[in-house]
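Appendix B, example 12.
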Amino acid sequence: MTGTPDRAGPDVLVLGGGVAGCVLAARLSEDPGRTVRLVEAGPDYGPHRHDWPDQVRNARALPRSDVWERNTPVHRIRARILGGSSCINGAWNTWPPGPDLDAWARLGGPRWSEEGLEPYRLRAIERMRLHAVPDHEISAWSRGVVTAAAELGYREVDMGAPGGPGHGTPLLNALDGLRWNAAFAYLDEEVRARPNLTVLAGTTVDRLDIADGRVRGVVVETDGRRETLVADEYLLACGTFGSPAVLLRSGIGPAAHLEAVGVRPTVDLPGVGENLVDQPGAFVPMAPTDELNASLAAKEATGDLYVNRTLVRAASEYCTDGSWDLHIVPTAGPPLFGKLPPGQYEAGFSVLVMKPASRGRVRLRSADPAEAPEIDPAFLTDPEGRDAAVLRTGLGLVERLLESPALKGLAAAVPGQSAAELAGRDLRGRLGTYWHPVGTCAMGAEDDPTAVADGGGRVRGVSNLRVVDASLLPTVPAANPQLPVLAVAEMLADVVGA
């Protein structure tokens, strides 16, 4: 059911209605004896998908309607809508390699291991209706790249399961062009009808009121009206940028930074907002031939044209055995940003560093929740220069793929912008992002002074507060994080509910 804020205290307050928040609200309210209230800053368009805006439902585009800031670099985009980033992203889902999960398990315990997360991976796949890319959605360009990768020895792999380097398609949360977001999957009409679940949309979380090592309430704002909500337990799921900002405004974080922005420190946790890691990349543009343009136009006419539907995961010389640290994503279709004349398209390769060593941070500009935090991804700043070297390795792989006869008649290099030419320049001027930020409220071992939470998401120094979202991940997985975050939220919902 839907309501407005009041002082009645549920058992659990879920703060943030993104991917993780939707999972938590649905799973924890399965127990009729537990009351759950989900708080989301953005709109809730209801349980019926036909009531949602077309731009949110359309899986062929990347909507920018329900975000915190409209005019911002892509690495700072923050979804503001029930369902979170699953409403505005590319609807791709891939799974990390075993070594990534082994590293998480060393910090968070066996429930974070490949074996521990497996039932939750399967549960998330089922609930989100994830499926392989239908053959008719694969363009001639993507098909040619897959052929070229196979010629170089890359085998076909299941991108939604453990494995190694290879080529394949992601699992999609898109059904015949409909983006199947986390609100559709987890908060359907049946779930919303539970009398013990309340969804509060349009309600912004300002800060937590902390006293004697416990949260006493959370200050929220709805239509200019401020109020304090109370609960027994608080689950923070405002995302990689939002969750650290809430903690910092609450006085939880590096004491010196808090004092500098006028916030009284309550819990000195130096790791809050630190350890920001995202996956940088570069785009290699190609000039489509008439043959490719005609093929893409034919797919667009039948509604089967999607910009990217395949990928190659590859290992650089820095990579752990059995893992990968590169995604090569062929793209062909209408430009994601800007326009071209009818019948003309762009093509190319996105080369993405999946396990960057560089670390950025999130900081407050002020204690005002309406002011966007300062987000610095610090791409390619690692002292050893490893991230740039891995990116250049990926650009070299693009050159090798382009030697295949399968691609010769489809596109040509753009003068001055070939992969080889880009590799010879300062890459920082060409950087984009996979838009997969994690790590700003990282879990860690008990003796790690930079850890914000433990493997159960419990925030250090605050007994009834947990973080459950992508900010909890201590390292970025060599994957699109949506499926790992879904699995982790499913797992932690069991932990909280036990």
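Residues 492 and 498 are 10 Å apart (CA to CA). The chain has 14 helices and 24 strands.
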